[in-house]
């Protein structure tokens, strides 16, 4: 923020403004005296003084300014970050790590804000710091660290899909996104049709969900769980073309030879009987087949 704008916001006397304009680069942009003369109750202004003082090497002023900012209501995260930086400036790595641990214990999960901080980067290589970041990742990215989000991983990959009689049906790409929270399917049939699905574990119900849409107007909304036969999802299919909806169910089964069987069924009598809708066998794509 330009100094003249910052100064007007604090309503500093003209003499102080003149003094600030002549401040050298390695001194705080706003002095403690200036803030006190302006009777500033802005916690962010005192925080900025703490930052400027630390940068200039005046750690005593930095600490007192931060204390004043906290007394005026500076958010705990802002205070904790700056206090950790001050500990680093003093060469007290453990105190800095303890401060960051307190933030983590309070629910802070923005790891990038810590690892990307130019001052806190000095902690890199410290075993306690590395352990802290690793533990924080578990809370920040739960899908990447909880086993229940791995239930559908057997479907991940680049696949050639064939019908039971060996006819090539198309290709399918299943990728994990958002740190493992979402599986994205991209289907391309041999006949030129395409479709996409989003698959995820609903944390509130513990059920896996698939939402599918394709270019032909088929919409599938199914959910369920991993069973001893594979991933079983049930729900409905809606056809946009004729505005009809039917019960629908799907089963993905990992086979011993490394393939995956996908079997879809539709009911035309509200679940009394079921008719096969699609059966495909997935084989991982080879270099040659990727050129198909």
Compact summary:
The chain has helices at 3-10, 14-21, 32-37, 43-56, 59-71, 76-90, 93-105, 111-115, 127-140, 142-145; strands at 157-162, 168-177, 182-189, 194-202, 207-214, 218-227, 230-239, 244-254, 260-266, 275-284.
Write the layout of secondary structure elements.
Blueprint: H1 3-10, H2 14-21, H3 32-37, H4 43-56, H5 59-71, H6 76-90, H7 93-105, H8 111-115, H9 127-140, H10 142-145, E1 157-162, E2 168-177, E3 182-189, E4 194-202, E5 207-214, E6 218-227, E7 230-239, E8 244-254, E9 260-266, E10 275-284
Antiparallel strand pairs: 1-2, 1-10, 2-3, 3-4, 4-5, 5-6, 6-7, 7-8, 8-9, 9-10
CATH class of the largest domain: Mainly Beta
**Which sequence of strands runs across the widest sheet?**
1-2-3-4-5-6-7-8-9-10
Structural class, by secondary structure, is alpha+beta
Counting structural domains, the number is 2
Sequence of secondary-structure elements: HHHHHHHHHHEEEEEEEEEE
Total of helices: 10
End-to-end distance: 57 Å
Number of strands: 10
**What characteristic shape results from the CA principal axes?**
elongated
